[in-house]
Specification:
heterodimer, A: about 150 residues, mainly alpha, 2 domains, flat, B: about 500 residues, two-stranded antiparallel ribbon, 2 strands, about 70% helix
Chain lengths: ~150, ~500
């Protein structure tokens, strides 16, 4: 089998799909109007068309050449994402301090350079710092501690 | 004299204690994050974006600007000491700065780059003081067709010149414009692309995009690649004194660097990174001893450091007078102004004269503060370099989350950050530079508005863009750039990034 540039193949395909969806959605869901009196769908449809053009321009040469395979560093991706997700889920129902502690522990796991103890110390320090800066200093409306049940 | 009056007005604004305070905070933070590789300018500006909601618009503007030019000062420190550029604009300083540090001349290099930065900034600020009013006056003649053309030029130039493949840069710009469409259409009131989320009817929050793309994405990509400094470096005043020969050899590069930098700064889309590279290349070409470059030639650090600072300051000219951001950083600054209901443009110099001239004068203050920060206090920054990244990044993640939440007191924005962070990382792995996306996002709505207006005025004839001379020449230039960019990226076949830096964000 001939080798192709997977990186650009995937990228180009994603862009083309996004563009195609945008054009379809703009033409069907919104009024398009005329060039002189454009409706809400006119400009997005044009931009979507440009996206398709860009996607195809990336895609086609990628079929004709070999290229590097894309490598996702899954470990940091997973743990940092979980860390942000944990904050978003916890902050309103459990409060700022628990949310920051959980999120900073999750974030620290992703490169494994800290021991459990150091992680917890860092998390505690960040929680205190966050409360002082954002609650006391900037007056952000957030519960410090909360209990949903 | 009008200029004199304006300068006095600016000084009065800039010396107002509140503005002065935020200027100093801005440049100090800028230096701090410039010094730390793996924490980009964009990330920091995004992080501090929520604070600007609470500030007076002038103070917000002065602070954000301070971060921007402050980071270019600080960035050279990391380039010289670690061989890692603190910001992309300082990447080329590594080539001769690090060899100088290895020869035990780090102190000299640090002092001289600070001096070069200051001189570059001086030229840039002078340019802004003299030319911004002229450009603004000229810009009053522009209609929607001209604005549309200039915006297209800015977008194309930014994507073609940025590192990596031109076609991918353009793709990201177009995707950004698409993203800017999300939300309620101003003309008809129809909610577009809201995916059923009522939160999206006001559009995607710029904070969420910036924090996701430049905060979370940066962290994910940097975790395994950033190292802290572990050497002792002599930064006493005595070790910083350059020899007379070094001083003599620095004037030429600084003059040429300042000229190049201001020129490239004014062009939309061409930022300090390109200016620094060009200045280095020029010095190497005019030098009688090009073989010394790369082995610690003082010219090799002076020219790019002058050029990038001159360009930093000059890039405010198109941003403030036309309202068209030449770079992503400038797009963020415009975003901050628009949140306060201020639309930068030619009328800014008359309607918000105190703000404009206050900003210009704050540049002087900021640059003087930066010299103080970077010469007597350099030891502090050197110590900052030894903070390990694995302690730093959990703190940054925390700031991103709470900062985003605090803008609207809404958890939805934190989820949006997550989506943009993951999306940005995937794009980055696929070789797409996420920075042009933000530029497209900020310009997108303006682009649509001006396009619609121009077409309305011409009764639906697309020829209006060619019939009006200014817009025709601008579009012609755009077309040339576009063809050149796509041609060279197709010929290259595979994408080659010019310099591998830990935070390859294009500016």
């Amino acid at each position: 089998m001939r080798r192709v540039d997977y990186r650009d193949l995937i990228g180009g395909a994603l862009v083309t799909l996004a563009g195609a969806w945008a054009v379809y959605h703009s033409l069907t869901a919104f009024t398009v109007g005329t060039a002189a009196r454009m409706g809400p769908g006119y400009f997005p449809a044009l931009v979507g068309g440009l996206l398709i053009l860009c996607g195809v321009t990336i895609l086609i040469p990628a079929l004709l050449r070999a290229g590097p395979k894309p490598v996702l560093e899954l470990r940091p991706l997973l743990w940092i994402s979980l860390s942000v997700l944990a904050f978003a889920l916890l902050v309103l129902s459990f409060g700022l301090v628990p949310a920051v502690i959980v999120q900073s522990v999750l974030a620290s796991i992703s490169d494994c350079k800290l021991s459990w103890r150091a992680m917890l110390i860092l998390a505690g320090a960040l929680a205190i710092g966050a409360t002082l800066i954002f609650k006391v200093g900037l007056g952000v409306i957030l519960p410090t501690f909360a209990w949903p049940w | 004299m009008e200029l004199f009056d304006n300068v006095m007005l600016g000084l009065a604004t800039a010396f107002h204690w509140n503005n002065l305070l935020w200027c100093i905070i801005g440049v100090s933070l800028g230096t701090l994050i410039g010094v730390i590789p793996g924490v980009g300018t964009l990330a920091t500006m995004s992080l501090l974006f929520p604070i600007t909601y609470a500030l007076q618009p002038t103070a917000a503007l002065i602070m954000l600007a301070g971060i921007w030019y402050g980071s270019t000062y600080g960035g050279s420190t990391a380039s010289i000491l670690l061989n890692l550029p603190g910001t992309p604009a300082n990447a080329v300083t590594c080539l001769d700065g690090y060899p100088m540090a290895k020869q035990g001349r780090a102190g000299v290099a640090l002092l001289m780059t600070t001096f070069a930065s200051f001189c570059g900034a001086t030229v840039g600020i002078l340019m802004m003081m003299l030319f911004a009013p002229l450009v603004a006056e000229f810009a009053f003649k522009f209609g929607p067709a001209e604005y549309f053309a200039i915006m297209v030029l800015g977008l194309v130039a930014a994507s073609v010149v940025s590192s990596g493949s031109a076609i991918k840069g353009i793709t990201m710009v177009v995707a950004g414009v698409m993203l800017g469409m999300v939300g309620t259409d101003v003309n008809s009131g129809v909610a577009r692309f809201d995916f059923g989320f009522p939160e999206l009817q006001d559009g995607v929050q710029i904070v969420a995009i910036a924090m996701g793309l430049f905060g979370i994405t940066e962290i994910i990509a940097s975790i395994n690649h950033v190292k802290a400094a572990d050497r002792k470096i002599d930064v006493s005043m005595k070790a910083m004194l350059p020899t007379r020969d070094e001083v003599k050899r620095s004037w030429g590069p600084m003059t040429r660097g300042a000229g190049l930098g201001s020129f490239f700064g004014v062009l939309p889309g061409v930022g300090p990174t390109v200016a620094a590279f060009m200045a280095y290349a020029l010095e190497k070409r005019v030098s009688k001893t090009p073989e010394r470059f790369g082995n610690g030639a003082i010219e090799g650090i002076m020219a790019p450091e002058t050029a990038n600072n001159a360009s930093d300051q000059a890039s405010f000219i198109p941003t403030m007078t036309l309202g068209i951001p030449g770079s992503v950083t400038m797009a963020l600054i415009i975003g901050a102004l628009m949140i306060h209901g201020i639309q930068p443009g030619p009328q800014m110099l008359t309607q918000h004269a105190d703000m404009f001239w206050g900003l210009v004068m704050s540049f002087w203050i900021g640059n003087i503060v930066l010299v103080i920060l970077n010469v007597p206090m350099i030891g502090l920054w050197v110590r900052v370099l030894t903070i390990p990244y694995h302690i730093l990044y959990p703190a940054i993640v925390m700031f991103i989350c709470i900062g985003t939440y605090a803008v609207n007191n809404n958890v939805f924005d934190v989820y949006a950050v997550l989506v943009f962070g993951i999306g940005g990382y995937v794009l980055r792995v696929l070789g797409f530079e996420p920075a042009p996306l933000l530029l497209g996002y900020v310009l997108g709505p303006m682009l649509e508005e001006n396009f619609r207006r121009a077409m309305l005025l011409s009764r639906g004839s697309i020829q209006t863009f060619i019939e009006r001379p200014i817009s025709m020449w601008v579009l012609l230039l755009t077309a040339v750039l576009l063809v050149w960019g796509v041609w060279s990226s197709l010929r290259q076949r595979s994408t080659v990034t010019v310099v591998r830096s830990p935070s390859p964000e294009s500016t």
